[in-house]
Amino acid sequence: MGELKRILNKRFLLIILVLLILNALLLISFNEKGKEEMAVYDILKEYTLKNKDESNTYTDAYRLAWGQYIKDYGINKDTVTDDIKSARTLITAKAEYIDNYHTNVKEKMNFARAVLSTDFYEAQSFERINLYKTYYDLDEIKDAKVSLSNGRWLEELYAYDYNHIFILLILVFCVYGFFAERKNGLYYIIHTGKSGRGKLFIKRTLILLGLAFVISALFYLESTFILLKIYGGFEDINLPAACDEMFLLTSGNLSRIGFMFLQMLVSAIMAFALVMLLWFVLSLFSNVNIGMFAFILICAINVIIHMAVSKKTVFRALKYINMYYLMYPNKAIEYYNWGYDFGIMELFESSIIMSVVLGVLSFLINFYINARRYFTGKSNIFERIVNRIMDMISQAIEVMPTTIKEIYKILISQRAVVILAILIYIVSKVNVGGGNIYLADTIYVSEYYDAAKGLSYSNELEEVYKHFENEYEELLASIDVNDKNNKYIIENRLSVLNTIRANVDYLKKLDTQGIDAVALKPYEYDNVFGPVQNDSQKLMALINVVATIMISAGFISYEKKCNVNILANTYKNRQKWLLRKIRTNALLIAIFELISYGIYYHKISKVYELDMLGAPLKSLPLFEKCIINPPIIGFIIIDLIVKFILLVALSACICFISKYVKLIYCVIVSMFITIPQMLYMIGFEVMEKWSIGRYVAYLPVFNDSTQSITVYYAFVLVLLVIGSIIYMQFVKKGRTL
After folding, report:
1. What secondary structure letter does DSSP report for 707?
2. Residue 705: what pLDDT?
3. Cα dihedral sign for 247, 232, 78, 702?
4. Contact 186, 179 (CB under 8 A)
5. How would DSSP label each residue in 227-268?
6. Whole-angstrom Cα distance, residue 449 to residue 436?
């Protein structure tokens, strides 16, 4: 019991709590955009179920439901939103899948039986064995009682990788705690005690095993609850998971909630096996940090092998019996058969067997190491090589400029690089949308923008407009305008012509004011700078704020830890030293900002067509009231510079806090500024106006017509004043830290 209390200390529980909060925020951030779509889907689903009886299909019932939905909610062509369109597409596909489920399964079985009755494949070939297995797997689910339902939450949970990553992080921290006696010098006393060897190892193994299941349950239950709140579907959790085509063979006969528990169980088992291997590897080294490096190297080699080996080669066993699936167990649950002519097995089965064998072997060997051998502290050959390399790095750093030493101190000595790497990984997962949806109207207007591309207001632009006006006149002359069937066509084309005229008039107005502007498609740019990206912009700003906290919180902590802070502050050139530290923080903040926003805008460029970044900013009506008119790319650069200035001012405030408290407490205190945004992301809409990301990002404020931009300027001014005052305090003569 004492060992359990030692492991589950306040710091460990705080880490669990922080990761649970981070997990919730990521889930909400990644899935919030599908909330409205599924709300419409659920309404259409209920209407469909009411219209479904034995005499019709789900598809027929949906057609009746759509008419009823239009009538009840007053839907017309002007009120059909993208969410409604997406919900219609989704429910149509689901209804067809459910209607044809049993027929499709039987057709697949009949096809497999027909092929097996021929000599198309050799008797002992892998392909023939695979067909047999697929046939029997289909036979097990052919009578599943599927129905139209909502299983979106399970699909998102299945595709979500962070649960297992966070579980592994917590268990790795737990294993690190098992080596605490090596650092505090109590190893020999504990190891020579009556219960300090085999019994202690067994206790720790049981703690690790129990923790694996408890932590897995916490994260999966939290994720399930959040996804159910976002997407709905609670009333359908006991229906077969096969109601969703994604899980046709993957889930077997399991219900949705049963399949969720399977994922939770598999995650716990594979996480335990992986950290048991980590424990064994760390036991081989006197320096656990070097052992961790060796373990990461082993995992990296396994992942490279998994990616490099083809599934058709004779070495494919190396691809499927691979630690990659222990790191991403949701991918191991995917239905896939692999093997050779002499045998076949599911990927799930081989992954479970591998995790059990790996866990048992690691346990047995590690038990022998802990129960029979004493820790000598001697370095093995691998450690000696690594230590030699580290010595060479240390010698190289000694002759490096002080700025490089400070960077090394922040990133390596204070391990901020780990958190920054995780933040960059999160940036790579930020949702930037699925691109612009071009409807018939939009496509026709695009013809105008293609013809007028890059033109400022001129006679040439008027000629382009005249061409489309003539087309409209020709349309009126070619059809019967009194025919009711043609009324919609005429109204639609007139609306398009008015849109084109509005753009010409907009450019004309700017031209009379002496403002440069050209014609360009606004749709793509509006999706990049407009309200569509508000949430992703705020999340990006929050990530950069957290990175700033991690970089700045250790401003003076390393000197405090080494008890040289007073000595350093008696140095006659301490002002230069402090300024250099502040500049180092600013440099790291700038590098992280460039990397993170570089990734973000690269993803944006892959989704949206931004081919006129050199055009004046006010070419976009969205920025008509903007006080500056640089090129669009210039606006992006200015935006990044302003963000950088704000982050540096924030960094100065955090550095001031670090004078008085330890690193961990400085991080905790500094993170308080992120709480309003976290509450907003969880669902407290009222906290949106207080969220730090809103003001650092700027664009969410700019796009909010209900809020005065004056609030933003006030925020910038206050933060800059406070940051400047603190900055001057650091360089004031006679100031001590």
Report:
1. S
2. 58
3. negative
4. no
5. HHHHH--GGGTTSBGGGSGGGTTTSTT-BHHHHHHHHHHHHH
6. 15
pTM of the model: 0.72
CB-based contact 527:397 (threshold 8 Å)? no
Is residue 699 within 8 A of residue 529, CB to CB? The reply is yes
**In contact, 125 and 341? CB cutoff 8 Å:** yes
Contact 668, 549 (CB under 8 A): no
**Strand intervals (E) in 290-342:** 337-340
CA 239 remoteness from chain centre: 29
Nearest to 444 by CA among 495, 370, 507: 495
Pairwise CA distance, residues 549 & 665, whole Å: 12
261 to each of 218, 219, 251, 265, 288, how far by Cα in Å? 12, 12, 11, 6, 34
Element (H, E) at 624: none
In angstroms, the CA 640 to CA 681 distance is: 23
Give CA–CA dist 63/51, Å, rounded. Answer: 9
Percent residues over pLDDT 90 in the chain: 13
> At residue 489, what is the residue type?
I
Torsion, CA 406, CA 408, CA 412, CA 417, rounded to 10: 90
- Nearest by Cα to 535 from 158, 6, 14, 35: 35
Torsion of CA 638, 644, 648, 654, to 10 degrees: 140
CA nearest neighbour of 332 among 351, 307, 308: 351
DSSP code per residue over 622-636: GGTT-S---BHHHHH
Q: State residue 411 phi and psi, 5-degree precision.
A: -75, -40
Contact present, 549 and 667 (Cβ < 8 Å): yes
pLDDT tens digits, 111-160: 888 887 777 777 777 778 878 888 888 888 888 888 889 989 999 999 88
- CA 201, chain centre distance (Å): 37
For residue 345, the tally of other CB atoms under 10 A from its CB is 14
Residues 6+ apart with CB under 8 A from 447: 468
Average pLDDT over residues 19-41: 83
| Number of neighbours of residue 484 by Cβ within 10 angstroms | 7
Strand bridging mode 337-340 / 343-346: antiparallel
Residues 522, 631 contacting (CB under 8 angstroms): no
Q: By the 8 A CB rule, do 266 and 333 touch?
A: yes
- pLDDT, tens digit, 9 for 90 and up, residues 526-564: 888 877 788 888 889 999 999 999 888 877 766 666 665
Concatenate the DSSP letters of all residues of 461-527 into one string. Answer: HHHHHHHHHHHHHHHHHHS-TT-HHHHHHHHHHHHHHHHHHHHHHHHHHHHHTT-------HHHHHH
294, 281 Cβ separation under 8 angstroms: yes
Task: Quickly list DSSP for 421-467.
Answer: HHHHHHHHT----S-----HHHHHHHHHHHHHTT--SSHHHHHHHHH
- What is the DSSP code string of 82-100? HHHHHHHHHHHHHHHHHHT
Q: What are the two backbone dihedrals, phi and then psi, of residue 624, each rounded to the nearest 5 degrees? A: -60, -40
Using one digit for the tens of pLDDT, what is the confidence trace for 414-430?
Answer: 778 888 888 888 888 78
Q: What is the distance between the alpha carbons of residues 142 and 440, in angstroms, rounded to a whole number?
A: 42
Tell me the three state secondary structure of residue 213. Answer: helix
Task: Report H helices in 8-125.
Answer: 10-31, 35-51, 58-73, 82-99, 101-116
